[in-house]
Amino acid sequence: MENLDVTVLRALRDWRLAGKQALLVTVVRTWGSSPRPVGSIMALCADGAVMGSVSGGCIEDDLIARYAHPAAKDALPRSGPPQFAKYGVTAEEAFRFGLPCGGTLELLLEFDPDAASLAALVQALDAGRLMHRKLRLSDGQVTLEPSDSPADLALDGQLLTNTFGPEYRMLIIGAGQMSEYLATMAQFCGFAVTVCDPREEYGGSWSVPGVRLLTTMPDDTVASFAPDARSCVVALTHDPKLDDLALLQALETPAFYIGAIGSRRNNQARRERMIEHLGQTEQGLARLRGPIGIYIGSKTPPEIAVSVMAEVLAVKNGVSLPRDLDVAHVKNQQQLASPGSACQLP
């Protein structure tokens, strides 16, 4: 499943290239609780088609009614410079639009964005580049600039700068059953997923649409995959011959998440192997996660995949997980309470 921002921009580009009038809506400020974060975008075509969202649905309905029906009360213009709109100012309005208690959000409405600029932006994103899109508030003129790192939306009296990046990517080592569940969840979360497994008995039965399957050796795959700061690498084979060198290769990259499935004992053994035989140090292995996942009492492959995906998303979003969700910590506590327990799953 494609990154939502790219999907929105692609639809908007197609509408504008077809000569249709369209509106780009950006969440620029929020107060209190809000359904969508600052920087979220949606596109609205004059015929009523919509892509993306800025709330739970009621604000979208209001914008459609005001933009797609020029004769409607409080109809929005079809052209002109960008303008702001605020929703949820009063408790009554917040309730009407389905906003959480006290929630208010401010939107920037951009009328008929330039088709050529949208095409250039989508082309850059398809090529894997991170881009700043700068909108001049006085007249709607847009400039595009490459960016070296992600940035939050910036708004001053003259410019709105929103940063758009290529899809987040996930590389999974191993094409087993758990990989199928994890790959499916990752796609729903907007990740482009690649699976690597040189073992014929696993790759031959892979059945998740939209996932690229490679049969090259995992460490070579990591090198060609070239993980960046929007990439994660997850090893799920339980086979040191496949996992270890791939993880070492990944640790040389800026991937935001690198981890391997396995029990506490197996993960400790992996670290000892890497230090003793592969020249690593504790400091060099500091970014290697394992046992991966958050503790949710999971037992089955889909449940374990949920726990792993949750941890990946938490790291991606910069969330510090409490210690009582750390698999190793919880299992250690359980073992102290019940020394006979041998369960090692997240």
UniProtKB/TrEMBL annotation:
It comes from the Bacteria. Residues 15-67 form the XdhC- CoxI domain. Residues 170-312 form the XdhC Rossmann domain. Pfam families: XdhC_C (PF13478), XdhC_CoxI (PF02625). InterPro entries: MoCofactor_Util/Proc, XdhC_CoxI, XdhC_Rossmann_dom. PANTHER family: ALDEHYDE OXIDOREDUCTASE MOLYBDENUM COFACTOR ASSEMBLY PROTEIN, MOLYBDENUM COFACTOR INSERTION CHAPERONE PAOD. This is XshC-Cox1-family protein. It comes from Alicycliphilus denitrificans (strain DSM 14773 / CIP 107495 / K601).
